Structures are given as C-alpha cells and as structure tokens.
Amino acid sequence: MRLFRNFTRVLLIVFFIIGGYLYISGTAQAYYGLDSGQAFLDSTASETGIDTEADLNVQAARLAKSLFSVVGIAFLILMVYGGFTWMTARGEEEKIGTAKKNIFAAIIGMTIMISAYAITQLILSGILGG
C-alpha cells in the first residue's frame, strides 16, 4: 500500500510539472506570437527532402513500410542466430532447445506481423472502398 501511495505522489508531481511547463510555454508562445516552431520544422523538412504536403495516410504507409522492414531484418537475424546455434550445438540438448525456441519465436513473430498487415489491409480496403 505504501508503494502505491509513493507511486501516486510521484505521478502527481510529474503531472503538475509537465502541466505547468505546457501552460507556461503555451502562454509565452501566445504572448510573443510564436507559431510553436512550425515554420522552422517545415524549412528543415524541405531541406532534407521530406514531403510536408503528403496526407496522413501516406505518412502512415511510409512508417508502416519502415517498421515492416525493421521487423523483417530482425526475423532474418533471429533465424540466422537460431540456425547457427543449432549447428554449433554439437548434440547438446540444452543448446538445441534454445535454438529451436529462437527459431520458433522468430516464426511466431513474423506470423503475427503478416497477420496484422493482412487484417489492416482488409479493414482499410473495406473502409476506403478500394
């Protein structure tokens, strides 16, 4: 119970600090007529070649593509690691078991990722009608 009270106190303190900061910074921006740095962000994005006029769904698709790439690389690394561990186990059942668990976990992770992608595509095609 004491741990819960301490956690609640810390959470309230953090909440008030962040809330106070947001209030003060918003007030200062309104007073000085600042646009919260949007012009600076737009100029930085255009210098790097990022399309700032793209729709939200285009940006989300780009993010999803990047995440799928990272997960695919992680899958490949886990599969190679599991295979290498299995090949170098030299008959030790403990190492073979660890290798099998790694390979199985990688396959389960990739299956979940592909299923999530398929479900998302199904829902979005139903919503967007395409």
Description:
There is one protein chain. With 130 residues, the chain is mainly α. Helix content is 85%, strand content 0%. The protein has four helices and no strands. Helix 3 runs antiparallel to helix 4 (93-128). The longest helix is centred in the C-terminal third of the chain and has 36 residues, at 93-128. The mean pLDDT is 80.
List keywords for this structure.
mainly alpha, 130 residues, extended, 85% helix, 4 helices
**Residues in β-strands, percent:** under 5%
Biggest sheet record: none
The helix-and-strand class reads mainly alpha
Task: Write the H/E string, N to C.
Answer: HHHH
For the secondary structure, the number of strands is 0
Q: What is the molecular shape?
A: extended
Low-confidence stretches: none
* Proportion in helices: over 70%
Termini separation comes to 54 Å
pLDDT averaged over residues: 80
Radius of gyration: 24 Å
User: Please, how many helices?
Assistant: 4
Structure, briefly:
The protein has helices at 2-32, 38-48, 56-87, 93-128.
Strand and helix layout:
Blueprint: H1 2-32, H2 38-48, H3 56-87, H4 93-128
Helix pairs in contact: 3-4
